[in-house]
Structure formats: structure tokens, C-alpha cells
Design a protein that fits this description.
By secondary structure, the chain is mainly beta. A five-stranded mixed β-sheet has the order 2-1-5-3-4, with no helix packed on it. It starts with a strand and ends in a 5-residue tail after the last strand.
């Protein structure tokens, strides 16, 4: 199990890009932290999620 934004999910074995493709996140407006480290956008396709990973996905919201 992978904990994503505090919720356990069965995402182990997927790349970060594959997981994000199943969500409503806009990849151009997010930052992803995996086990305390920021994952560069260029590495989403090669970053494989593993059992025990803790992932935080943060969306940027504009406004004024």
C-alpha cells in the first residue's frame, strides 16, 4: 500500500505518471513529494511507487 495525501491506496508498482493519469490533478499545476523528497516532473514516468511509500500531491491554486 502507498499512502497518498494521508489515504492508503493500492498504487504500489505503478509509476507516478501512471497514478496521476488516474486522477483529476493537472500535472502542470502540482508538486509531488515522495518520502520527504520532491520528485521533479521529468522523473514522474520513471518513479515507481513502492509499498510503504508516503506521497503528498499539492495543487497550486491561483487567485487574487
Amino acid at each position: 500500500m502507498v499512502t497518498i495525501n494521508g489515504t492508503p491506496q493500492n498504487a504500489a508498482g505503478q509509476t507516478l505518471a501512471d497514478y496521476l493519469a488516474t486522477t483529476d490533478y493537472d500535472p502542470t499545476r502540482i508538486a509531488v513529494e515522495r518520502n520527504g523528497d520532491i520528485v521533479p516532473k521529468a522523473q514522474y514516468g520513471e518513479t515507481t511507487l513502492a509499498d510503504g511509500d508516503v506521497v503528498e500531491v499539492v495543487s497550486f491554486v491561483g487567485g487574487g
